[in-house]
Structures are given as C-alpha cells and as structure tokens.
Amino acid sequence: MIRTAIIGYGRNGSTMHAGPLERYQNDFEVAAVCDIDPAAKEKAKARFSCPVYDDYHKMLEEIRPDFTVIVTRSHQHAQMAIDSLMAGSDVLVTKPWATNARDAERMIAARQVTGKKLLPWLPARFGTDLLKLREIVERGDIGRVFEIRRSVTTFGLRCDWQTESRYGGGYLLNWGPHLIDQPLQLVKSPVTRVYGNLRQIVNPGDGEDNLRVICHTGDGVTVVSEFLIAAGPYPAWVIQGDRGTILVEGDTARIFRAELPERVGAEEYRTNTVITESAEKITGQIYGDEYEIYPHIAKVLRDEEAYFVPLEEALRLSRILDAARLSSRLGQEVWL
Ligand SMILES: NC(=O)c1ccc[n+]([C@@H]2O[C@H](COP(=O)([O-])OP(=O)(O)OC[C@H]3O[C@@H](n4cnc5c(N)ncnc54)[C@H](O)[C@@H]3O)[C@@H](O)[C@H]2O)c1
Question: For ligand 1, which residues put their CB under 6 angstroms from it?
C-alpha cells in the first residue's frame, strides 16, 4: 500500500488525481488531504474518511506519507514539492511543475539530496492523438518530418486565478506544457532556439491568453505551438514531411502522401506529383487518461518501471517556457 497525501483538492486534484487514487485501492491508500478551503476539506473527508489539514507542513509531519500529490495553484508547486521531498515523501507534481527553470533546478536538487522520487505530471504524453501520430510518422508515411504545428483555438474565456501571473497563471504555463511538449515528442534532436509571442487579448487579469511559440531543433525541425483565444477552429495538428502531410481535425487524422518522381528531368519545369489520401480515427483521451497513468505510477514507486517523464526532459521544457517568455519581451529569438 502506498500511503498517499493530496495537497490541493480543487477542480483538478479532486478529479484527475483523487479519481485513480480512489479506484486503485490495491495500490494506493489516501492517508490525508490538505486544502485551505473548508468546503474542499469537507468533501475530501466524506469521500476518503481520512484526516484533513489546512497546513501541509503539519500534515507531512503527522502523516509521514510515502507519496504526496501536489495539485495546488501553479506558483505553489515547487516549494511544496521541495518541502514534501525533504519530509521523506516521493512526490508527483502537476503541470507546470515549476513556474521557471530555476525552481525546477531547486526541486531536482532536493530530489538528489533526499533520494526520493520526483514525478512531473505531463499526461498529454499519453494523449491518443500523439500516439497515433507517432505511429504514422514512424511508419514513414510522410517521409522526413521538417515542420509541426500544434494548435488549440477557443472562444472560451476564464476569470479565475489562471489569468493572474502572481499565481503562476497565464496560458504559457497553463497550456505550454501540453502544446509544446507534445509535438517535441515526435522530434529527435533537442531545441536550440525559441521564439515566443505572448499576448493578452480578452481574458481579465494580467496573464497572456494567446500564445505562439516556435521552437527550432538542432536538426532543422520547426515546431509551432499555439493557443489562440477568440479564434474559430484550426486543425489541431499539421505535420509536414518531405513525402507528405498529416492533418488532424476532430477525431480524424488525414494523411496525404506524395508520390514524388526520382528527380525532376532537365526538360521539365515541375514534377507531376501524385497525391494519395487516407484517414485514420483517433479515439480515447487526447490529453492522456489518468486511469491509465496511475498503474504505471504505482510501478514506478515500487521501482518496477522507469517514470515516463525523465527529469532532464521536464527541466528542458521549463527552459523552453522561460525562453519563450524572454523572447516575447525582447521581440527576438532566444538561443538555449
Ligand atoms: N491536465 C492536467 O494536467 C491539468 C488539468 C487542470 C489543471 N492542472 C493543474 O492543476 C493545478 C490546480 O488547478 P485547478 O484548476 O484544480 O485549481 P483550483 O483552484 O481548482 O485548485 C487548487 C486548490 O489548491 C488549494 N490551495 C491553495 N493554497 C493551498 C495551500 N496553501 N495548501 C493546500 N491547498 C491549497 C485551493 O484551495 C484549491 O482547492 C494547476 O497548477 C493546473 O495547472 C493540470
């Protein structure tokens, strides 16, 4: 039994994490929940019949959990993770695991000092769209990939803490971990330079609600990640290879394959390329299914599997997010 504590029993903590912890009772026991909101504490107590706290230091000291899941506001994650590691607990920290790379490094240092496990939560790596696209790309259907565009568009506004930078709000930290990390999973070489354009269009608060981040990799792949507010639907993915294109709209991946001739003859001014089209369905959860991920976490905590997000990759992502913010301020590309 992995005696587990949850810090932050809000919208996400009480669903995405409490759900699998409740279901997998052969692996996890919810030993305590901490939240400063009395109503959240009441709900957790009624659901898990466990002690509830509003001071996480006290909870860590009294409960001594094996494993702590941190799902508070984004600016709180890094310090809470460090304190939990120092209290002798393994830690899962939701996205964004830190609001900047320096805090991410502090967490990694705490992990090294304590020897405890630190698990950054990037569930979109289990996203079914990503898995399908990886299958198509690895099959070689579109040849060598040189450009990927990942877009989310919406007219949906927010008015909560996610619009305020003092709480770690703004859509770079909120959506960046999904929209930048996912396409980079299809690319082998690391990112070398980053361009960011962060703007606030319609949301209240001071956080950006519209973002475009362009990452260039060492081997010449361009990855465009964008969250566009007040915008109608774009394809969620466009992947270009030197032999074709994949376009994802709704639950369908359309694959366009180009039958290029060997080479253009000297007498021809252009090729007569034949394009064939096919389509494949994408089913399941595109941002990852927590009920699929938690059995893996139980195995990781028992040293039976390696965690699906290596720490150096999570740190690299934090550096990209920092670079995107700096680039947007400077109005120019930033080298990593
Ligand atoms: N797919 C995903 O991975 C995903 C989805 C949604 C949210 N998130 C992340 O989860 C985090 C929480 O988002 P949310 O929408 O649930 O926010 P929320 O405001 O609903 O929940 C945060 C909770 O933390 C509690 N809290 C605040 N200070 C505390 C303290 N000092 N000690 C204990 N509890 C405290 C609040 O009372 C609240 O209940 C965010 O960082 C967000 O980015 C991840």
Answer: 7-13, 34-37, 40, 56, 71-74, 76, 94-95, 121, 123, 174, 287
Superfamily of domain 125-288: Dihydrodipicolinate Reductase; domain 2 (3.30.360.10)
Protein fold of 2-121+289-308: Rossmann fold (3.40.50)
DSSP 90-110: EEEEPSSS-SSHHHHHHHHHH
Using CB atoms within 10 Å of the CB of residue 85, give its burial: 0 to 12 exposed, 13 to 18 middle, 19+ buried.
Answer: buried
Confidence tier at 272 by pLDDT (50, 70, 90)? confident
Residue 302 confidence (pLDDT) above 80:
yes
Give the tens place of pLDDT for each residue, 128-137: 999 999 999 9
pLDDT over 70 (residue 268): no
Pocket test for ligand 1, best of 73, 93, 162, 287 (most atoms within 8 A of CB): 73
Atom 32 in ligand 1: residue holding the nearest Cα: 35
Domain boundaries, the chain: 2-121+289-308, 125-288
pTM: 0.96
Closest CA to 63 of 153, 145, 2: 2
Distance 12 CA to ligand 1 centre (A): 6
Could you give the CA distance from residue 312 to residue 57 in angstroms, rounded to a whole number?
A: 28
Residue with the smallest CA separation from ligand 1 atom 21 is 10
What spacing in Å lies between the alpha carbon of 281 and ligand 1's midpoint? 33
